[in-house]
Amino acid sequence: xxxxxxxxxxxxxxxxxxxxxxxxxxxxxxxxxxxxxxxxxxxxxxxxxxxxxxxxxxxxxxxxxxxxxxxxxxxxxxxxxxxxxxxxxxxxxxxxxxxxxxxxxxxxxxxxxxxxxxxxxxxxxxxxxxxxxxxxxxxxxxxxxxxxxxxxxxxxxxxxxxxxxxxxxxxxxxxxxxxxxxxxxxxxxxxxxxxxxxxxxxxxxxxxxxxxxxxxxxxxxxxxxxxxxxxxxxxxxxxxxxxxxxxxxxxxxxxxxxxxxxxxxxxxxxxxxxxxxxxxxxxxxxxxxxxxxxxxxxxxxxxxxxxxxxxxxxxxxxxxxxxxxxxxxxxxxxxxxxxxxxxxxxxxxxxxxxxxxxxxxxxxxxxxxxxxxxxxxxxxxxxxxxxxxxxxxxxxxxxxxxxxxxxxxxxxxxxxxxxxxxxxxxxxxxxxxxxxxxxxxxxxxxxxxxxxxxxxxxxxxxxxxxxxxxxxxxxxxxxxxxxxxxxxxxxxxxxxxxxxxxxxxxxxxxxxxxxxxxxxxxxxxxxxxxxxxxxxxxxxxxxxxxxxxxxxxxxxxxxxxxxxxxxxxxxxxxxxxxxxxxxxxxx
Length: 587
Hints:
Layout: H1 3-24, H2 34-71, H3 82-106, H4 109-113, H5 115-137, H6 144-157, H7 162-183, H8 198-252, E1 256-260, E2 266-269, H9 271-276, H10 282-287, H11 300-312, E3 314-323, E4 329-340, E5 346-355, H12 357-393, H13 403-432, E6 439-441, H14 443-453, H15 455-460, E7 464-467, E8 476-478, H16 480-497, E9 503-511, E10 514-521, H17 528-533, H18 553-564, E11 568-572, E12 578-585
Parallel strand pairs: 7-9
Antiparallel strand pairs: 1-2, 1-5, 3-4, 4-5, 6-8, 9-10, 10-12, 11-12
């Protein structure tokens, strides 16, 4: 055979072989997973119970017919051969017993583990029982009705594992044509004694083929649907994992995450955004009927937000002041972009909100600090420099300086040195904390030392100081030098903030395990807003804008008292004086 001829013959053969593999070959390992096989076995086992029940009822109905026919013969059965009319009851009873035995096996472990064997056994117990009886009796039995009911009921009720259906059909047909041909048996049907009948063969072939094709297609459909469900479930699980990750990020984010509608209402908010606005739950933000525009301290900020979004599509570091739920004001920074549909229609805004109040306060403190450095440290240097330049401008070689000028220069240098020392102490205290040299301290002794050192300043400010601290207070474990600084700073602070003629009262009482100390004055007092920030770093009151001070005194007092394990605060109101208080543990 030539090469061309072999190629021409190979092409249709290859096509048929590929078609056969695609349509009738068993699923590959990749296509059929263990999970699907388990599911199919459970399906087969469950449907077998229904099929066995139906087969039992069907055989029972034919058995009852035959019992009734023994006493009242049916005219329609008189045409059957004598052997079938007399022996059909025995055949039906035998098949009934087989079905009952299969019912019993169905409940066992073998029936659960191998439903395929139970399927074959139950099928052969019906189809081959009649064939065996006919062979023993000496004739061939083409049981067209029985086979049709058997194969059709199995295809309808158990439409999986088409190979099993094919095995049950082929086994019966091989027995019928093979054994009967080998034994030379004939059928008891008048006019058609041969076992080979073309109409019968065509009918059985196409009946079995249609049943098997139906089972095969249903099995493939079930397998495809099963894999589709598995993929869908896998995708759903992945989606749940992704959603859980996103939800975790959304719920635990430090920044506020939001979606807002074009008309200015929050659609979505995370817990961080709720905390920024002073709410306990994110749902309260979205459920709140207040429009976003009303949250801004400057109502025009929302319009500016929308204008920038329309112009650029996104914004970054959009800083504004907003009202919290309790009415307090905080600074926020917004970063957002516009979300649009395929047609460009605006759907909503989405972005992040960060609370930058602390940063703004730090910036303000730095601004105050740099102003203090440029003003409070620069002015003494400039004053000293001007005096020295004036002396150098004189023509004489030896220049005489009056004592008052030297005193002013010394005072200016002292102030400059004090400011620099305070700045260094604040920095060291911020980084390392206050270092204490503790010992048993009599509080009265410390206060008297501080008052003695400040006596000239008190006289210059025409102030009166009353010391109500007694010597019977318990000793405290403290650093006397640091406590001296606290009392000195509080007294000096009161003198700086008030006009001359101030009345100061110092007192201390024993309360439980603590000593409660107060420094009270009858001055102008301060507002609640200033009281809240009085102990902050570099904060200076409005009444001492021209003072040569960095605003470190009260901050250092707080550092010292906290280092001792106590607390410090102020009770004051405008035009009602001020009372500084702090506590010290006895031990």
